[in-house]
Amino acid sequence: MPDFQDQWWVASLGRMLIWARLRIKAAGTAEVLDSDGNTLAYDSEDSARAALFDADFVAFDGLDEEDALVRGFSLHEIAPPKAAHDEDLKPLMTQSMGGRA
After folding, report:
1. Could you tell me which residues are beta bridge partners of residue 31?
2. pTM of the shown model
C-alpha cells in the first residue's frame, strides 16, 4: 500500500490544458509535480492546494461537466495523464485541445 495519495489538478489556457499532480504524503507533507516536470515540496496539503488555486488550477475530480465546459473542455474528452514514471509524465502534462477550447 502506498504511503501517499495522488490527486490530479487541471488549468486551461486558451486551447491548452495544463496538468499538475498533487501527492499527499502520509506524514502530512505534499508535493506538486508541475507541467515542467518539477517536483515542488510543501509543508502541508493545505499550502500545496493554496498554491494550485493561486495558479488557477482546479481539482479534476471536483469538476462537473458544466464547470469543465466553462473552462473550454468536456470531461468526456480528457483524462489525467498516465505513465509508469514521473519523468515519463513530463511530455504529457500539457495537452492541446481540438476545436472545443
Report:
1. 23, 41
2. 0.89
Cell of 24: 499527499
C-alpha 75/C-alpha 64 separation (Å) is: 8
Report which secondary-structure segment, H or E, holds 50. Answer: helix 45-54
Q: Confirm whether 47 is domain-assigned.
A: yes
Grid coordinates representing 84?
509508469
φ, ψ dihedrals at 16, nearest 5°: -120, 135
96 burial type by CB count under 10 A (0-12 exposed, 13-18 middle, 19+ buried)? exposed
Distance between terminal CA atoms of the chain? 38
d(CA 19, CA 83) in angstroms, rounded, equals 13
In a domain, 100, yes or no: no
Cα–Cα distance measured from residue 16 to residue 38, given in angstroms and rounded to the nearest whole number: 19
- Residues 47-81 have pLDDT tens digits of 999 999 999 999 999 999 999 999 888 999 999 99
Whether residue 66 is contained in a domain is answered as: yes
Which structural domain range is residue 43 located in? 4-95
